[in-house]
Design goal:
mainly alpha
Amino acid sequence: MATFVRRPFTITSALKQLPKSTAFTTRAFHSSSFKQQLLNQRQTAPLIQNLVKSSRSAFQNTFRRHQSSYPIPNPTQTGSLGQRLLYGGALIGGTLLAANLIFNRETREDGGMPLYERSYLNETFLHTGLGLGIIGVAASALHKTGWSYRLMATNPWLVIGGGLVMSLGTMYGTFGTHPDNYIQKYALWTGFNITQAAVLSPLLFMQPALLARAGLYTCAMMGSIAAVGATAKQEKYLYLGGPLLAGVAVVAVSGFAPLVLPATAARTLMWTERIWLYGGLAVFGGFTLYDVQKILMHARLAERGLTRKDVVNESVSLELDFLNIFIRMVQILGMQQRRK
């Protein structure tokens, strides 16, 4: 009805597209024999069927929304390998430059990063990379054993509850272990990484190229933000801790919406998904900036002997930032791929 109101002449144009009049043979019992009438009916049946089909197609074509889809060229998917690498490098460099111009107007006043801060930050990044490598290897091994299928067939509330218990247990166990207790420290840290791998293994159902792109974009985003945090004025972004915790609470609540709200609340679910995706990117990008400056502050405190040096604990925070950004990158790229 709405279509007819907007386009009142569509039915008329549809009728004009019908085939011209076709010669029909009518039954006349007084002018022909019964056999001749049956023969005429058999001959006209295909004509009537063709008429109905052409009329139906003409009517449907009249009301069909014609959308001109022009493919948008993607520089990362066209051209030679050198052109793709050049475009990717320009994208990462531009992101880093823009982040520095926006967030890093006040640089450090102490002549640059001291050697002990640089060493502490490098060791933290090394443990972060090792932890992410353990997660990747463990997730691949679990996926090959069929763990992902069993996990997706399990009650989602059970998966969320069990994952939270295991993650929080191993994480706080790692935080509470003294750095000198190497065996227990690294055992709990490895258990934390394996727990993350067990929860995230269904991501391997996605295409490897999509996962690689998501990983590249995550590294570019976190690398640029970490560079800003490392070169910015000391303790400039530590005030973000409170607002970021509030943002995480909002993002977490929006993530539980599909499990609570009915499927009929389509508009509400759409907005909660946007909050979880794009709000989560902003929140965990801010957490990356906050965590880098917190690591540098801990390095200064450890240099003065006010706290113990613990790069394993610092790496856990960066791992969580990376995983949360990576998951959202995968989902955004998957949505873009389905729209094509």
